[in-house]
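From the thread on structure requests for the teaching lab: each student submitted one protein with a one-line request. Submission from student K.M.:

"Model Alpha/beta hydrolase from Azospirillum thiophilum, tokens only."
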Amino acid sequence: MAALALGGLAAVNTLVARRDERRHPPEGRFLTVDGVRLHYLEAGSGPPVVLLHGNASTLDDFLASGLFDRLARSHRVIAFDRPGMGYSKRPRGCDWTPEDQADLLARAFVVLGIEQAVVVGHSYATLVALALALDHPDSARGLVLLAGYYFPTTRVDALMVAPVATPVLGDLLRHTLSPPFSKAMMPLMLKAMFSPQPVPDGLTGTFPAALITRPGQLRANAQDGVTMAPAADRLQHRYAGLSLPVVVVAGHDDRVVTQEEQSSRLHHVLPNSTLHWVPGAGHMVHYADPDLVADCVDRLSVENAPAEPLIAE
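Reply posted by the TA:
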């Protein structure tokens, strides 16, 4: 009976995932790099800017915040669905650490003719952006890091999703129990991410939240969760070697990542960095002040130097 119930739940979850994909079809283009199919959205012309979203998200995050359209006025903007997220694939056989993702993106840059881009990373993707700058220094001329995680800590959320990332058990969970549980938890997750500010009105109409609870993306979400702290531990010893300009943007009221421990520390480690605090903002700083983020990108694109702090530390 239990097996039949789980089988029925798996069938329902598959049908729901297909329905959600019909409701939110891909809006961008696809390219295949080393056998991995990547989905990306491109607009505008001018100095290149690459946008990398955080965990449990898609490139639509930058559309919903308004940052993509704001930057496209004066830049060639490329937003990627990171591997396994949105409509990008995440083949098995790879741990898909931030370094692995950076390697793949660097090769995608070559295919798309992206040179010396300003790379914007949010949350987990700040580690991907840092790995890209460290391992492929010719790919980026500057980084804008939003609400990032840079130094290892004990994270309860990583422990909670670890079973979903494991073989066999994870496959069972993400096709049966995890999708409905994730959907039920979505309002609380969004509240925590935007707090202390409210979740924007109309977000459900501009951001396809249903896509991040599909079985395939749940595996990617869980893998990113369990690889985050070990990656930060590896990369932290290399930060001081970065010479390119880095702008760090954070909110004091971030309830997902303690920014006083993360962003402040990174700013003191990086030799060529600037730190901006966004008043009253939580984890979603690019929603709280997209113009500030865009201004940081503009200055890095033109001057190749950190923007002067608009808000005192």
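TA comment: The chain has 13 helices and eight strands. The beta strands are 29-33, 36-43, 48-52, 76-80, 117-122, 140-146, 246-250, 273-277.
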